[in-house]
Design a protein that fits this description.
Structural class: mainly beta
Helix content: under 10%
Bound molecules: CU-O-CU linkage, copper (II) ion
Distance between the termini: 61 Å
Length: 577
């Protein structure tokens, strides 16, 4: 492996700081996003400008301000109405990453907010205490809108977490840290398709410092970068404790000196600063320690032959650099000085509970030495807004087996659910990954991750949920799929509990030939028949209110027929004898 000049220089720690800030900028106080709470939250997506660097201001986007957005504080069990007004002058969407909400409220690429419109999803908060985030999710626009600046934290609180002695004074001993990188061009304007994201920022602040009390402090880390994996540690190499993963508390604090976080992932950590009053330490990225095959390591590919053009020119790749200076001041009046013992219990589903195993294969579109440059796809199919990739029976417990046949690691994210990792390349996950997760970094070069989850509470015959790579350029380039959680019974569109039968099947049980009748209001559309494992066994375009299907070739068992027409969607269950 060749060691490039830039890499050698970055191990001095200093160079990226100089490059990022420019000679005129001094260190800047960390921005702590304001908070919203209560039963109604108003987010206005808007354009603005931000003075990141000396010289021209950068055109940015934010929620309720020019860059990023407020932290939404939610209580588990509360009902919340979000009013999201789009004033950015083009279509976008807002997705509540990590939250368990109905597909119509999830804010994926089908839930477009047109310019000037207000989208008002209303839902109960069903999550456990956790750190989530919100960001745009418009197809092919996610990366641009996130890099321009729309993103914010969601903090869910609950009784279980409240009963623990944990730091939770927002902005004092409980500090949200959204770590992102940006490429800025010669006019300081945002570039979202390059590799020179040399500007590291926390909550939108370049080269930040924050004053923290001399006691146990909680940091809520979010990797909000488009591609880059971070490997966090402290400059004095003291250990810290991870207390929560994406979906909430771990069973007990996990001690570590390094924490790897891939795009989309969150972690809550406790850092004991009790002995450091009057001193400063740095939250630092130790990129030189990342194994090759991860975006952010010295080489992004597993093998030296796989190169992303320009990658090695970016000193952040394989580099060690400071992210945030922690200036330790006086303790607060009521400091937390002890780590909690056990925090929660996890009872993951076990493999024997699973109704099915679903295999998702990652592959490059181009084979050979340029494979690593992407695009990448799941199951050989680039994302198609009109194509449902997986049909998941309601309340199924499923193992998803992710097979990465590309030379680079990809952070796989799924909407709707939190999952438990069963194995990474055959081994059980490390303790800090044994809690609830919604993003997992799948190793390149034939890496395999298996997780288990249950698709409960919500279903829709009409609106899918997404799964995708959370490297946002990969997502936009088609490394995404969508799944419907199938309605439990013969019910109608949307989430109404009961609807008159708008699709029916004769005879039932069926033998060789099936007749399906659709209500004419559904219009022209597509019929899909899936088996009990959610695999499509028959698809056909239907124009009319009745269709005959030859089912003589399908095996005996129970099936779900779904018709998605211009006027709505409906499903019916039937049995093949
Ligand atoms: Cu954070 Cu589908 O995304
Ligand atoms: Cu998400
Ligand atoms: Cu990817």
């Amino acid at each position: 492996m060749t060691r490039t000049a830039s890499r050698t220089l970055t191990s001095l720690f200093l160079l990226p700081t100089l490059m990022m800030a420019g000679p005129l900028a001094a260190q800047a106080p960390l921005t702590i996003p304001p908070t919203l709470s209560g039963a109604q939250m108003d987010l206005t997506l808007q354009n603005g400008t931000t003075q990141f660097l000396p010289g021209p201001a950068t055109n940015t986007m934010g929620a309720n301000g020019p860059l990023l957005g407020p932290t939404l504080i939610l209580e588990a069990g509360q009902f919340v109405t979000m009013n999201v007004t789009n004033l950015v002058g083009e279509s976008t969407s807002i997705h509540w990453h990590g939250m368990h909400v109905a597909p119509e409220n999830d804010g994926g690429p089908h839930i477009v907010i047109e310019p000037g419109e207000t989208w008002s999803p209303a839902f109960p908060v069903l999550d456990k205490a956790s750190t989530h985030w919100y960001h745009p999710h418009l197809h092919e626009k996610t990366n641009e809108h996130v890099v321009k600046g729309i993103a914010g934290f969601i903090i869910v609180r609950d009784a279980e977490e409240a009963a623990l002695t944990l730091p939770r004074t927002y902005g004092v001993d409980d500090i949200p840290l959204a770590i992102q990188t940006k490429e800025l061009d010669a006019n300081n304007q945002v570039v979202w398709h390059g590799v020179m994201d040399t500007h590291v920022m926390v909550n939108g602040t370049i080269d930040p410092f924050v004053e923290v009390p001399a006691q146990i402090v909680r940091l809520r880390l979010l990797n909000g970068a488009s591609e880059r994996v971070f490997n966090f540690g402290l400059s004095n190499n003291q250990s810290f404790h991870q207390i929560a993963s994406d979906g909430g508390l771990l069973t007990a604090p996990v001690s570590m000196t390094r924490l790897r976080l891939a795009p989309g992932e969150r972690a809550e950590v406790l850092v004991d600063l009790g002995a450091l009053q009057g001193q400063s330490i740095q939250l630092r990225n130790f990129g030189s320690e990342l194994p090759n095959g991860i975006y952010g390591a010295t080489q992004p590919g597993m093998g030296g032959g796989q190169q992303i053009p320009g990658y090695t020119n970016n000193p952040l790749n394989g580099g060690n650099y400071d992210i945030l200076r922690l200036d330790v001041g006086a303790p607060t009046a009521d400091p937390v000085t002890n780590l909690p013992g056990s925090m929660t219990t996890h009872t993951p589903w076990i493999e024997a509970d699973a109704d099915t195993t679903r295999i998702i294969t990652f592959s490059p579109v181009n084979m050979g030495p340029t494979a690593i440059q992407g695009p990448f796809v799941f199951d050989m199919m680039p994302f198609d807004m009109m194509m449902i990739n997986q049909y998941v029976p309601f309340e199924n417990v499923e193992i998803w087996e992710l097979r990465n046949q590309t030379p680079i690691s990809h952070p796989f994210h799924i909407h709707d659910v939190q999952f438990y990792i069963l194995s990474i390349n055959g081994a059980p996950p490390p303790p800090n990954m044994q809690g609830r997760k919604d993003v997992v970094l799948v190793p390149g070069g034939m890496g395999v991750v298996r997780f288990i989850t249950k698709f409960e509470t919500f279903w829709s015959a009409e609106t899918p949920y997404m799964y995708h790579c959370h490297m946002l350029s990969h997502e936009d380039d088609g490394m995404m799929g969508q799944f419907l959680v199938m309605p439990p019974e013969n019910v109608g569109t949307g989430d109404e509990a009961v609807m008159p039968a708008v699709i029916s099947v004769f005879p039932n049980p069926a033998n060789d030939r099936l007749e399906l009748r659709m209500d004419a209001s559904l219009g022209m559309g597509d019929l899909t028949i899936v088996d009990g494992l959610g695999r499509a066994v028959h698809t056909q375009r239907v124009n009319g209110d009745r269709v005959h299907v030859d089912v003589s070739g399908i095996t005996s068992g129970s099936y779900i027929a779904t018709f998605r027409g211009a006027g709505g969607a409906a499903t019916v269950r039937f049995v093949k004898q």
